[in-house]
Structures
1.
Amino acid sequence: MKDHYHDILQGFTVEELCVDDKAKQAIKACAELMLNTSVDFATATSLATLLMAHLKHIEPSEAFVEVCEENTPRYYSGEVTYVAFFLLYLCEKARMLNNILYEKHFGCQAACFLLKCADDLDVCDKCGEKAGRQIPIDQASYDNVPPFHLGCRCRTHMAQRYPA
């Protein structure tokens, strides 16, 4: 069972960013450090500052930008802030996947998990379309576990069984 954040993060492709594999590993290492110490904006900003000192520039993929306008550096005050939010995004995705895998491993009776969005006026169209979708626990993956974009407020809820 992948119940350790290192294993989970190594499984993340991080295709949202157009950077080389070495940079992706550095980003995943920073997210792991946060998950094992403190997942907060101050820590994320400090690590993002260190990352940007070495990476110089970071560019999101076109597919990631299309999901939500918040997925671009220009939406933020600078690239360091953007990378900080990306680290928080990765941490939350790793936590969600870890929680699902934990439930599965320790005999949870749930057959699937439900995607739940904030259900208010600030929910983006893409997340609104996913609300209520049921996904079998065995199919939990990087692509179908929230958050789906930076600033995403979607969550998962375990479901005992599929509806009739």
2.
Amino acid sequence: MLRSPLTLAACLLLSLVFAASAETPLPPGVKRVPVTLAGGFETNPVDHGRPVILIASALGVAPEVFRETFTHVHPAGPGSGGPTREEAQKNKKALMDGLGKFGVTNDRLDTVSNYYRYPPGPGGRWKTKDASANALVKDGKIVGFEVVDHGSGYTSEPTVTVPGVDAPASFKVKLAYTKEFDTNGSIQSIAVEKK
């Protein structure tokens, strides 16, 4: 029976979607062990708790550029209820004067600022999505890692532990910073740290 090209294309697409969603088979003797990821939201002390690496990446500028520009901003003090309208306008002008020459638009600055704004109340944090990963273990030893969900919003390397496995002292987590919110501050890879 002959099928139309559209039907063949649809069949191929369905098989690719199924293959991509299926769990990758492992070599004999290798098992997956879910890892525990903790922390990863520490900021550079010079940034006073601001996730500058995320903000700068989302704006497409180097963190140093954002830091220098922000030195011209005068935030309202704690408990002040926020800046006055005049203060807010001066702060926005200072930011646009410094960032506009790098192609940052007012709309993009507003979008990024609002996305990484702290929620009100104590203990708040910018928007994040937890990552998840598995250690690949053979004969009780870690032979590799697979990142299941890359997460987002990490500003520093999270601590990796592998429950029930006699693991080396430390792991190297590689983070990726991009302009896209869902991949900015994501875990790109995890590896056993070389000594």
3.
Amino acid sequence: SQPLHARFHCTATFPKKPRPGGWSLKAIPWGFVLEAFAATATRAAAADEECVVPARQGGGFDLTCRLVHALAEETGGLRITYMPGGVGAVAYNMIVAQRRAESGTLVAFSGGSLLNLAQGKFGKFTGKEVRWLATIGADYGMVAVRADAPFRNIGELLAAVRRTPRRLVFGGGGTIGSQDWIKAASLLRAANIGHRAFPYVSFEGGGEASTALLSGHVDVYTGDVSEVRNLWREGKIRILGVLADARLEGEFANVPTAKEQGFPVTWRIVRGFYLGPDVPAEDYEHWVRRFDTLLASESFRRARHQSGLLPFDKTGREIDAYIDGALAEYRAMAERFGLIN
């Protein structure tokens, strides 16, 4: 088989429009992103390059692939495909079992993927089965309600939960033990409310959860800032607080943190990519060089900013060290919540 840098030919596939959520395809300057990445690519015409979104359309995984979609566009594009299931579990199993050596196949992951992996929700896997490639940015958790909800801050919301624990329904991506569930459970614990005293509806990703919030199927969504950015701009939802150490910059500067409201809960969501375990070292290093070039470019940083993500740049050996530490931290957190023994 040819090395990665000798293979570029793909056709991008787009949905007609994104589901309700925070990112906007038109808002990202794809041409600028392209310039940063294509500079390191060699033209050819053989196998596809593909970015696998391990969820349905919309939400953070989709955003992750779309941010790098234009990277190889001059050589044919980076095809985006959807493979929902288990907040990344189906895609992870697929790569490990069936597509181990596909140098052109990137799979998106997030902190939520790592959390589920640490809890054993990906099956027997431990995180050593794939080649972690790069992180391209970070997002932060938030607490959102519909614009017509009576709650103006997190304190009012949690007071209502304390009065009638089963009345308000929370929703998020992933099942009990997922990052969206842990965000809600952590807030309840910070308010001295039993963390199992609330109903929670699980969805495959942020796109579905946002839709459920707007339609009234859930009352509270503990998702990510980037996922609800457009809904917030349009006045359809109210963000009660962000789960960051300090207020975010830019348009969210006036949104208070949970911490300053008296609930010391933070949640950072990294977004990145991995490759199959048997991808040749030459191809892996070529991807690393491409991402190093991309992440250093001002044009990509502008695109990332417009998407709602913050810098969190790691590639190669640096990302391996980060993954090991994150998995250990997530396992300890899951133990505290009684999710694993």
